[in-house]
């Protein structure tokens, strides 16, 4: 089990796991003497530089990136803020080995060593270590199998030819190549070689098991976007879309479906009971529902409105705001905030105050949303996009608040 990242480099969280330290120790042990120490150091440095290449490329697309260094591999994980184009994903994959190879060549040239001269790079331990840790391992990463960068690059191109099936094709191809290499090395009675292929093969089999989930993330960018798309499909087509694991269609859609079939009592009970379920939210708000559908569903709820589940209460407050019931929505959201302080309930109160013409009160609630600090990205997006805040965005205090949100987030 990894610990939380203890350092940041260029703003990226970096998690150095025990497996990475073990890997460097193995390099030093297997290649005893001066070469082993140089290899351990160079592999550590160039692996970090490789992952920083990925992380900077991901940041250039607007994604949030983090780095983990583990046994036999480094990982630059990134969370897109929007669906990425194929060439953007390919660019992120290329950036890592490009940095590793490029900087390795530069270092060798500064050492006055020709990276293409096999004899020259073998003359000193430092040159050989840089050559292996930089250009050679970087080129190995471009082999077109998953989970190597070369496999991800090919998969991005293949997706343009066979959309939706590229990951599956690449996984089966990668498993076949890796398994063949493992059999060949084992038959050749290699002592160490097969060990270094077992781990990629295990990773490939695990990726095959979760390929549908990853394909969904590739298409939608984030779990939130994927879930929102599936919820939207439910309201538009009448049938729920494909949700990511752990997520489901909203109780609002389920209640609307029951109401359409005349089962109003069941619809009311289903919607009301959701407020009593004390569990993390596993559904998205009914943003794609029409105002008429939402109005009818709100009419099925008992008065006073039910409470008990903070997320369900927030969604109801947002629905009431959308329907123009600002006084009711504001009071309901303020009561929620008193019991469970959070950024988004405070945002709803601020929306209602702004809609009712009390700009100063709205700003105070926006400040409360910032102070609670539970969802600063949601607060920033709300200030930028929600129509009730149109007249507030140019106020000096709101501009200052927006700057603080961006700096903190």
Question: What features would you describe in this structure?
Answer:
- The chain has a 4-stranded mixed beta sheet with strand order 1-2-3-4.
- Helix 7 (166-187) runs antiparallel to helix 8, helix 14 packs antiparallel against helix 15 (326-339) and helix 16 packs antiparallel against helix 17 (359-372).
- The protein is elongated.
- It has 2 domains: 7-220, no CATH class; 240-408, Serine Threonine Protein Phosphatase 5, Tetratricopeptide repeat.
- It is built from 19 helices and 4 strands.
- The chain has 409 residues and is mainly α.
- 36% of the residues are buried.
- Its main location: membrane.
- It is found in: Membrane.
- It is a multi-pass membrane protein.
- Its cofactor is Zn(2+).
- InterPro entries: Peptidase_M50 (IPR008915).
Condensed summary:
This protein has 409 residues and is mainly alpha-helical.
List the helices and strands and how they pair.
Elements lengths: L6 E3 L2 E5 L1 H13 L3 H27 L3 E7 L2 E7 L6 H25 L7 H4 L3 H16 L8 H13 L4 H22 L5 H17 L1 H10 L2 H15 L13 H10 L3 H11 L16 H9 L10 H13 L3 H14 L3 H13 L3 H14 L3 H10 L10 H13 L1
Parallel strand pairs: 2-3
Antiparallel strand pairs: 1-2, 3-4
Family: Belongs to the peptidase M50B family.
Membrane topology: Multi-pass membrane protein
Cofactor: Zn(2+)
């Amino acid at each position: 089990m990894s610990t939380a990242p203890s350092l940041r480099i260029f703003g990226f969280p970096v998690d150095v796991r025990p497996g990475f330290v073990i890997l460097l120790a193995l390099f030093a042990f297997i290649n005893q003497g001066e070469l082993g120490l140089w290899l351990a150091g160079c592999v550590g440095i160039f692996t970090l530089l490789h992952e920083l290449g990925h992380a900077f490329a991901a940041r250039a697309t607007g994604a949030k990136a983090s780095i983990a260094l583990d046994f036999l591999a480094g990982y630059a994980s990134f969370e897109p803020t929007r669906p990425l184009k194929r060439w953007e994903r390919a660019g992120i994959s290329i950036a890592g080995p490009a940095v590793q190879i490029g900087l390795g060549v530069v270092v060798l040239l500064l050492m006055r060593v020709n990276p293409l001269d096999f004899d020259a790079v073998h003359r000193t331990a430092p040159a050989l270590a840089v050559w292996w840790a930089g250009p050679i391992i970087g080129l190995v990463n471009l082999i077109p199998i998953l989970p190597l960068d070369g496999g991800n690059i090919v998969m991005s191109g293949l997706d343009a030819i066979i959309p939706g099936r590229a990951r599956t094709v690449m996984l089966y191809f990668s498993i076949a190549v890796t398994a063949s290499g493992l059999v060949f090395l084992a038959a050749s009675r290699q002592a160490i070689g097969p060990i270094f292929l077992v781990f990629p093969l295990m990773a490939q089999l695990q990726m095959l098991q979760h390929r549908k989930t990853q394909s969904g993330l590739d298409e939608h960018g984030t779990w939130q976007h994927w879930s929102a798309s599936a919820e939207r499909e439910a309201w538009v087509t009448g049938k729920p879309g494909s949700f990511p694991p752990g997520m489901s269609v909203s109780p609002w859609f389920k209640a609307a479906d029951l109401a359409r079939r005349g089962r109003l009592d069941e619809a009311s009970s289903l919607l009301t009971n959701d407020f009593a379920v004390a569990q993390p939210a596993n559904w998205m708000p009914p943003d794609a529902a029409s105002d008429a559908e939402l109005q009818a569903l709100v009419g099925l709820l008992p008065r006073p409105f039910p409470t008990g589940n903070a997320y369900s209460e927030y969604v109801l407050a947002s629905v009431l705001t959308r329907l123009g019931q600002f006084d009711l929505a504001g009071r309901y959201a303020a009561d929620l905030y008193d019991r469970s302080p959070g950024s988004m309930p405070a945002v709803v109160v601020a929306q209602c105050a702004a809609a009712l013409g009390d700009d100063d009160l709205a700003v105070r609630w926006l400040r409360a949303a910032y102070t609670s600090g539970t969802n600063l990205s949601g607060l920033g997006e709300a200030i930028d996009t929600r129509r009730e805040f149109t007249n507030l965005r140019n106020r000096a205090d709101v501009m200052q608040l927006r700057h603080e949100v961006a700096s903190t987030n």
